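Sequence only, no structure available. Ideas?
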Amino acid sequence: MDAAAKLLKVVPEACLMENPKSYSAWHHRKWVVGQGLAPLERELQLVTRALDEDSRNFHAWNYRQFVCRKLGRSAQDELGYVEEKIIQNFSNYSAWHFRTMLLHQIYGTPGGPEAGVGTEAPASASSPAPGAGGTAGAAASGSASQRSPIPHEVLDAEYDMVHQAFATDARDESPWTYYRWLVGNTLAHLGPAAATAAAAAAAGSLEAASGAGADAAASGAPGTGGEASREGREGQEGQAEVDEEARARVAAVLEREAARLQEDHLAAEPDAKRPLLALARLREAQARLGLGDSAEAGAALLEEARGIYRRLMDIDPLRRGYYQDALEGRAFVVVQALGTV
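Reply:
I predicted one. Tokens follow.
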């Protein structure tokens, strides 16, 4: 390596040691790698050391993604590393965020667990078309959107991990942000139709949404006899069974999580605002998605959520405007093809 190449490599390293959060130093480091002047394995060691020094350095996390993508490192391998950093310090937005990206890459790409870091998830028929109107269509194009649901058993393990974080420090915001993302991915198993129904419920009333769903089901029935109609009915019945199983599974998860929040947090600290807000969102999702046992149960769930929002307005007056919006149904968001609250 000639003197100029050595200078290009050594100078940014010295800059990073002096200021590990320098935008320009990390950017120049990427350029050095792009010129082939730094071995990738050594770069991975360098950024690992940087994260050992400060596990919340988002510059280092971004650079690690860049290096892993160049190396072709699997998302599954990186998932283990991210879990180690999270366990070392649960208050780590960057690590939690990187974990959401890895899980999407593993379970939303053709390569599955062997998918590489940075692999894009494929579009599917359930994804909204580009430029589609409405809030749901716009939200689905955001950074949290994904094309296929993460399996329930994977989400259950993630719920267990985030509850460990809550037990360590329930006041830290970063695990609660991840928790909200988990709930969204649980709701993704209901599909776009549920998102549409919830949006209608948020805009109007639960009864109106239920009526619209019944009308839609009736209008979808075959209008003529014969073999084709019989096959169509059988297909609809089969899909209805699958949808009902999905609804039952999602309903069970939301109820389980509501019970955990009440027993693990609110029983000891009734006015803890983060568990209260999470509980309100769960109850509102159950109500607006029709996951109660009956219309009366759905109405009771929605009223429970509204009651919590009223309490939060007193507990957390600085965010009174947000809770007022939530109380009036303006803070509930359902993303088509992902479903999130």
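Residues 121-145, 205-224, 335-340 have pLDDT under 50 and may be disordered.
Hope that gets you unstuck.
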